[in-house]
Design brief:
The protein folds into 3 domains: 98 residues, Immunoglobulin-like; 86 residues, no CATH class; 137 residues, Glutaredoxin. Helix content is 34%, strand content 23%. The protein contains 11 helices and 15 strands. The longest helix is centred in the last third of the chain and has 19 residues. The chain is globular, with a radius of gyration of 21 Å. The N terminus is likely disordered.
Length: 365
């Protein structure tokens, strides 16, 4: 499943303008907690902030502090279980004033959130989406579901719209808007405009609204924004240098497991069509100070195409100009530099390239 980041790059939420410092308190209770367990917390969208490390006391983690703006954070457990290979999970939530309680049996992946309303609503949205994607292929719901251009069920859009309608005054609805934007930016903008003015006009709301407008300008049929960024050797690569070829602009990161899995399939397509003019440009959203991780991932995954990055995490200049909010993501461009597909899945890309190059071969004869 696509590694959804839920929120747009590196933005903060202001719950109210002119807000003063307020206290926050986060309590993390994990029942099967191993001695020496560590909780890592970082701002999910900051390109500069280093992670904070916390150690359990009395069988739980307790984090206190003061904030002026609500932010979106990610927590990850390390060395928490007797079985180190078992997924210890991560959880993303709003860092808001008040007390937020996170309760889990062994993994944060299945944690329950209580305390602050924004996080209760967000947890509710996550559970709803989890139940939706767990529907078996033969279920009535899935049989009747329409498919969008990427092959995904439109059920997720319908469910997200319903959530927004019921939570117009909740910060969690911004997550639902982002879920819709993943496959239907036009509908996402419409849904965003139904949110309360308070949510639309807070700092993150303004940025998401502007980003959605931008996303609706960069769509299939429009010219792809040209860009220049440094490659692994420190040379400046420019997208327009590949005019005349079909090009996949691929957004990924060394820390993104689904991206790494997708690389394996892209390699096969690259080898099959590269000599016929197919090019791939991978834009990495790795963090500052993680150049070695980026280079090692390229080497380990055998990525023999163009690789560029400014190591600004979600503030990557190219990602922002293309309206990327989650990875993996991609744009397929025609030889004239126009967008012919967005966020295309590997199976669909395989078919698309087969059709394109068959047509190209036929026209050349």
């Amino acid at each position: 499943m696509k590694y959804i980041l839920i929120m747009i790059s590196c933005m903060f939420i202001m719950t109210s303008y002119g807000q003063q410092h307020e206290n926050y308190n986060i309590i993390v209770k994990v029942r099967k907690l191993k001695k020496g367990a560590t909780l890592i917390m970082d701002d999910e969208y900051s390109s500069k902030q280093t992670p904070y490390y916390y150690h359990a006391k009395g069988g739980l983690f307790q984090i206190r502090g003061r904030i002026t703006d609500t932010t979106f954070i990610r927590m990850k457990l390390v060395n928490a279980l007797s079985e180190p290979t078992k997924d210890q999970g991560t959880i993303s939530l709003f860092l808001v004033a008040g007390t937020t309680v996170i309760t889990a049996d062994s993994s944060l992946r299945d944690a329950v959130v209580s305390g602050t309303q924004a996080n209760i609503d967000l947890d509710s949205f996550k559970m709803m989406f989890k139940e939706l994607i767990s529907q078996p292929p033969g279920s009535t719901q899935n049989q009747s579901a329409k498919k969008d251009s990427t092959g995904r069920s439109s059920d997720s859009i319908i469910a997200s719209k319903d959530f927004i309608n019921k939570h117009r005054y909740s910060l969690a609805s911004l997550a639902a808007v982002q879920q819709i934007a993943d496959t239907d930016p036009e509908q996402a903008l419409k849904s965003f405009r139904t949110l309360s003015r308070t949510i639309q006009m807070n700092k993150l709301g303004v940025m998401i609204g502007n980003a959605l407008i931008h996303m609706n300008q960069i769509k299939v049929g429009s010219p792809a924004p040209n860009f220049s960024q440094l490659d692994t050797a420190g040379h400046l690569f420019t997208l327009s240098s590949l005019r005349g070829n079909y090009v996949l602009v691929n957004f990924w990161a060394s820390w993104c497991p689904p991206c790494r899995v997708e690389n394996k399939f892209l390699i096969a397509l690259f080898h099959e069509y590269h000599e016929r003019g197919f090019q791939i440009v991978s834009v990495s959203l790795d963090r500052p100070g993680q150049r070695d991780q980026w280079l090692n991932a390229i080497k380990k995954d055998h990525l023999q195409w163009y690789n560029v990055s400014d190591l600004k995490y979600m503030m990557n200049d190219v990602a922002i100009s293309y309206g990327v909010e989650s990875i993996p993501d991609n744009y397929l461009l025609d030889p004239n530099g126009n967008i012919i597909a967005r966020n295309i899945q590997v199976t669909d890309l395989t078919h698309k390239l087969s059709v394109l190059y068959h047509a190209k071969q036929s026209s050349a004869q």
